[in-house]
Amino acid sequence: MEKLCGWTGSLLRINLSTGDSAQSDSMTYADDYIGGRAMASRIYWDEVSPSVNPFAPDNVLIIMPGPLAGTTATACSRWVMAAKSPSHYPDQYSFGNSGGFLGAAIKFAGYDGLTITGKAAAPSYLLIENNHVAVRGAKGLWGLPTDETLQKLKQAHGGNARVMCIGPAGENLVRFAIVVTEQGGTVSSGMGAIMGSKNLKAIVVKGNNKVNVADPEKLKEVNSRIRTLRKGLNEGVYMV
User: Fold this and answer.
1) Which has the closest alpha carbon to 23: 14, 40, 11?
2) How far apart are CA 35 and CA 172, in angstroms?
């Protein structure tokens, strides 16, 4: 198999209604839709009906980091959550973005992104540890604010677990509810309400794979240049 750089080559698809998960080829999108936001938009176009209700199980929640997430590239660990959103009128496609470790963790687990459909039968959270994917009960977490939820999940799964979750607003389908990450980041555009509609309290990701880059030495040069510019040196000189 050809060595992939930036991409892992795999999308993880989870159906909360059945608890099943499967992988699909992300490279069918990668050449034409570079970046998490672009790939998420295309998947949405392909898989979400124009008539779907944002709170329906058929709505697809898409979580997508970019090809540089999980590498040493400076300030490139951004990721997006996209779905048909209830925070706009009329209901329409939207996305929120965040940073921190979650996007990189998805790549370290071996995936270029996640798609989540269905609705769990009871309050649940999703645990992804490389190839191990499980839907776990969240009875003791449902109703808690985000800070307590994050703390309990970190205690349960270790300091290297990366977590995002919703609070009571998302659980009660407040249309502009946010998602919160352990680094204090947030995801807007009603993505918290989408998680709540799926009975999904949180997502926990752990991975220990590596994301390859095509030219590590060139990436070091680019990173060094960025750090120089951020320090205010060589102002007025731009990279070509």
Assistant:
1) 11
2) 32
Closest CA to 19 of 91, 95, 119: 119
Q: What is the pLDDT of residues 114-134, one digit of tens each?
A: 999 999 999 999 999 999 999
Burial of 38: CB neighbours in 10 Å, binned 0-12, 13-18, 19+:
middle
Q: How far apart are CA 131 and CA 12, in angstroms?
A: 9
74-104 pLDDT tens trace: 888 889 999 999 998 999 999 999 988 999 9
For the chain, how long is the longest CA-to-CA vector? Answer: 58
- Which tokens sit at 131? 């190839």
- What's at 97, amino acid-wise? N
In DSSP terms, which residues pair with 23 in a beta bridge?
A: 12
- Which runs of consecutive H residues, i.e. helices, occur in the chain? 27-30, 36-47, 102-108, 146-157, 168-171, 191-197, 216-230
Angle, CA of 220, 225 and 229, to the nearest 5°: 150
Query: Where are any strands of DSSP class E within the chain?
Result: 10-15, 20-25, 61-65, 79-85, 92-98, 113-117, 124-129, 132-137, 162-165, 179-181, 186-187, 200-206
Compute the residue count for the chain.
240
Question: How far is it, in rounded angstroms, from Cα 98 to Cα 179?
Answer: 10
d(CA 187, CA 178): 5
Residue with tokens 């947030």: 186
